Amino acid sequence: MTEGFRDVEDAPEEWKVVSTTRHFGARVISGITDAVVMPDGDVVDRDYVTHPGSVAVVALDGRERVLLIRQYRHPARRLLWELPAGLRDVEDEPLHVNAARELAEEAGYRATTWHTLVDAFTSPGMTNERTRIFLARDVSPIPAEELDYVRRHEEADMPVVWIPLADAVRRALGGMIHNSQAVAGILAAYAASADGFASLRPADAPEA
Hints:
The longest helix has 13 residues, at about 95-105. It contains three helices and eleven strands.
């Protein structure tokens, strides 16, 4: 039986796991294999990576431009244009505070108006990582004397650009921007701009 579109909402579900094997544990991620009982009774292995989760920020200025940074991503072997983003690496830190910290550290900006833009699992077939992408407006640069974060390694040389939101949409759809948070955030911000962002959830909205 086909359900109506009103039933289209993700729901919590957890199938029985009969065994778990932890293959490795690294600084951020771990590799896991669960033996999962399928609805027909078969038991199959499912490999995945555990991850603490992440946040990202679509920062929009008064000219409807979005802030992007460029960072080297070794697994992809590419320089990718991305949103300011980072790990959920401070225990009990509210996610919008986490996002504001990443915007400051990676781009040197602050914002006074924050909304929840979109929630997503980055790649649910292989990892439990979930991300929350925020919309930040009323953005201003942070004076240099207030910045005390030292960028290192991949973050040491990250160009910052402001690009018109509509142009960012065209680049995402044209295969010129690949980072999943950036693509989701850019398209969500463009869609949300139709009603002046009035339908967005507050910055501290709970995650379902």
